[in-house]
Amino acid sequence: MDRAKKSRKPVRQQVTKLCNEIEAEIATGVPYRQTLLDLLKKLDVASTKFINEDDKVKEAMLDDDVADVDLETEADDCEKYQDKILVAERIARNGITPEVSNQIPSCSSTPANNGTDHTKSFKLPKIELRKFNGELKEWLGWWSQFEKIHVDTKIHDSDKFQYLLQAMIPGTKPLQLVSSFPQTAENYGQALDALKQTYGRESLLMQVYIRELLKLVICNVSQKEKIPLDVMYLKLESHLRALKTLNLAAADPATWLFPLVESSLSVETLQAWQRSPLSKVDGKLENPPRSCLDLMMEFIKNEVQGQQQIALAQTGFQSSSSGKDGKNKRHRKSEDEEYPVTAAALVAGDVKKIRCVFCGKNNHQSQDCFRAKKMSHEDKLAKVKEANVCFRCLRPGHIFRKCKVRVDCPTCEKGHYQVMCQEKKDGDSEGVTK
């Protein structure tokens, strides 16, 4: 009996492989007729071998006088494989298109190629299942292809779940989200709903493409990067077509105004907005309904009123500073005004922690560096270029031509600090020579 089962095992594997190939061909949406015919012929031969091998196993079990329970289990197992073969044959025949007649028409008959025959006479390449990586801009294209598998009633939900897993790029968050559900037919709908709720919400996708349009506007205004006209046209067409697909015309104006308002807020305000309970409220359920833009404007109003209340509470309770403290504060203020803070300096870190260009320490200004006084002018210039700072004020974030700091050298009366004065260095050298 064991020998008969061992002989039947490769036949069963061949049957399973052919059934899976038929299902995969049907799942492409455009199955090729000849491929299905070839698979059906192979499946017919394999099913005949399968029946013969099953009969041998049953005879061996009867010869060994096995229990009735084992015979029933074997019969149920064989019936499952027979059902699988029948299902594969049925879906393959349903996917086969009628064959075109090969008869040559007579001279009196109407020509066959009259524009009404649309049957393919060539084999198209197989469409690979598109994989989703979690990028919101990739959702529309991915869902357009996978939706054909989702709405196909001939594919079981458990198989759809496997196709869904295969349609995710390994190591990405979408795959982690889908894999968190047990891979059963009952959980397929829940896994797909969770994926659509996370990446496929129309309001979210609209905001993505509206922000892409805003990026083009900001790039054009700032003139940091000049986009060629043909590239600009392609990007505009792509984003506008995506918005048209999402039916922007029928959407609430607050949906496309919300990204404009949100982009104008600072990072601190946006973080406070995300922590606010108003950002979690579904305004559609209220009476009267409120949009996400209404909720954000209410939050901003509350923030403004809160700042006014804090300023009012602090007024009149601040102790007056001593003359020395006031002098120090005015001195620090004048220093802050002398060295304006740039956007690049803020991105790089705290302004007070800017290191000396020449020695790398942060306990003094670059123009007061003692080590720089012993360096040659060429070494100082090399340090300034290496640190990518302004030659005039020795601060990062801008170049010499755009520097707004007023600096006068006491030696040559030019626009730089004394530490960068070449004439002073030459005078010292002459004095040493004499």
Short note summarizing the structure:
This protein has 434 residues and is mostly helical. The chain is built from 16 helices and no strands. The longest helix has 31 residues, at 33-63.
Which structural traits does this protein have?
434 residues; mainly alpha; 16 helices; elongated; Znf_CCHC; Znf_CCHC_sf; nucleic acid binding; metal-binding
Q: For the terminal residues, how far apart are their CA atoms?
A: 114 Å
Low-pLDDT segments, ≥5 res: 98-117, 319-324, 331-352, 425-434
CA-atom Rg in angstroms:
38 Å
Q: What is the overall silhouette?
A: elongated
Q: At CATH's second level, what is the architecture of the domain at 2-95?
A: Orthogonal Bundle
What proportion of the residues is helical, as a percent range?
55-70%
Pfam families: DUF1759
Region (Disordered): 316-338
InterPro entries: DUF1759, Znf_CCHC, Znf_CCHC_sf
Keywords: Metal-binding, Zinc, Zinc-finger
3D structure, described in words:
There is one protein chain. Among the domains are: 2-95, Orthogonal Bundle (Topoisomerase I, Chain A, domain 4); 136-199, no CATH class; 265-312, no CATH class; 353-433, no CATH class. The chain has 16 helices and no strands. The chain has helices at 2-27, 33-63, 68-95, 139-151, 157-166, 173-179, 185-199, 202-222, 229-245, 253-263, 267-275, 292-314, 323-338, 343-348, 377-387, 422-433. Helix 1 (2-27) packs antiparallel against helix 2 and helix 8 (202-222) runs antiparallel to helix 9. The longest helix has 31 residues, at 33-63. Residues 98-117, 319-324, 331-352 and 425-434 have low confidence and may be disordered. This is Gag polyprotein. Keywords: Metal-binding, Zinc, Zinc-finger. One of its GO terms (molecular function) is zinc ion binding.
